[in-house]
Structure formats: C-alpha cells, structure tokens
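task queued by scheduler; priority normal; single chain, no ligands, no partner chains; default sampling; output format set to structure tokens
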Amino acid sequence: MMLTILLPTQNRSSFLRRALKFYEEEGLLYKIYVIDSSHPSCKSEVRKIVKSSNLNIELLDYEFGVSVHDKELKSLNLVESEYVLMIGDDDFIFPNTIVRCVEFLNNNKDYTAAHGRSYLFAVENAATYGRIKSIEVYPQAASVINSSEQRFKAHMRNWTTTAYSVQRTKNMREIIAVHRLFGDDIRFMELHWYATNVIRGKVAKLDRAYMFRQVSLRKEWDADAVSIWSETPEFSEKKKILIKELSNDLTIGNSRTLEHNRKICASELTRWIKDRRPLRPFTLKNILNHSVYYYLNKINEKMRMVRNKKIVADKLAIEKVRVFVGRTDSVT
C-alpha cells in the first residue's frame, strides 16, 4: 500500500464506529491506525469497535492525557508507506479521491500535499446520526505559486488548513517532530504545520469531492481566544521558535538570506495575529490597525456564505453523506 491512514480518537466511540462503518461501505482498502487516547472507562468499547471492523485496521493504544505531539509522532514512526493521511473520527473522506491524490503526488514531486473539495456539516443536537441541518464549504485551498516565499505570503493572507490533506510521510514526520517545541500549544502547532507544507512545496486541490467534516465546538481560533492567547507570557518565546523554524525552511527553498526570511516570517505572523484580534472597540484607530487582507477575508467569508446556498458541484456526494448520517437503522 502506498498510503496509511491515521485516525485519532478520544472518548468518542460512537463517532469512531460511525467513521469505520462509512469506510467499510465505501470499500476503503488502505491500512488504518486508530490512535486511541481515551479515558480508561472508554477503552474497552474502542477495542470492541476495532476488533469487529472488517477494514485493514490496527489499534494503537495510548494513555489518557498523552500529549498530541507524542501520540502523533509515535504513530507516524510506525508508518511505512510513502504517503499518509490524518483524519478525524467525525470526518468522512472519499476513498476514490484519496486514490487520485496519491496518484497526483506520485506524478508531481514538487507538491507536498493534495486534497479536493471539502465541506462542513452540522447535525441536529450535534448527534452522531440525525438530520443534517446545514452544509457549507470547508476552507481548503490550492497553493501552486512557484516561489516558496510567495506561497507562504499568500497562505498567511488567506489562511487554510492542510492537516487533512494526503501528504508525504517523510514531510509530515519532520513537521510533527518539531511540535514538541510548542508544548502542545495547538495554535502554534497548526500554524507551523500548514505554513511548512506550503513552504516546502505546492498544494493541489483536485476537482472532486474529498472530505466532509462535522462541525465541532472548537473555539481556539475565535477572535477573543486568539487575543488572550497572544498576550500570554509564553507566547513571545513560542513565536520566536515558530519564526526560526519557518525561516529555516524558507532559506532552504529560496535564494534569500536567513535574515531576510526571518523578517518575512515575523512580519506575516504579526499581521496574521493582528487580523484575528477582535475589531472592537469600533474606532478609526482599531479599523486602521487591521490590514487590507482582514477585510478581503471578511468579504470572502460573506461570498462563501452565498456560495453555500448554491452548492451544485458535489450533489451526489452531499446526498450520500446526508443519507448515511440520517439513517435510522444505525447502531449508536
């Protein structure tokens, strides 16, 4: 097999069961490592679910409370395939598109990651099964500019995720290894991960349905949360680490000096953080403090809301997920 799937789960056996059932019905053939760090009271149910699955699956059991970095890196070190895909237990990714992503990366060595069109969906009462009450476009983008510096700048000004893309195993392993420096600060880990992917290579977005993610209750990137986070005592030190790591990668990928690349990384990161702070109080000074990219992204968000009402490209995939999640004969 050319690809291995990593599927982390914690205290959500009903979502894990649903995910594995979906992949069984879709005929997924790739090896899956279920990375379980559930509370001891939930572990027996996870073992039961994995044992009863007909997929090519193996359970990796970690202690409850283990760091995100430790369990991801230890699991990645077991992967022998050239490509790897990390997916959530509340996600659905279509196997046929995974195959196309692997084929694309195999034929395009200057790309680090590939995905397709993705969506967010919300279920009534945030349940495992039930009526899907909304579906919207999930922000995953292509990054195909030849210059690593320009790819990085474009990414930081229109920030999207690459965590759930098909990726080269060696690259992801090197990225996750750095995350110990951030002490499990999920924001710095994600900033580093996504930016490093676009610095090291291009990112492809294939013209087909790829992933459906159930809306979570995560608040890490809310404006108030980012504002509080950016004022914590440890923030400045971790920011220096992030700038150092990103500028080192940029220096490998372009012909500019390390000092030049540090200035680029520091400037882009400072602007990125500023644009995510609350736009209040609503004063002229506060308005001017936000860059033009802040307002362009706000316009883009409004346009995405309009597009959400006119989703037509993936009607069959949307209907498949709607029927699967809405079924009444499922074991929960």
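post-processing summary
- Strands lie at 3-9, 31-36, 57-61, 83-86, 91-93, 111-123, 132-137, 166-168, 202-214.
- The chain has 13 helices and nine strands.
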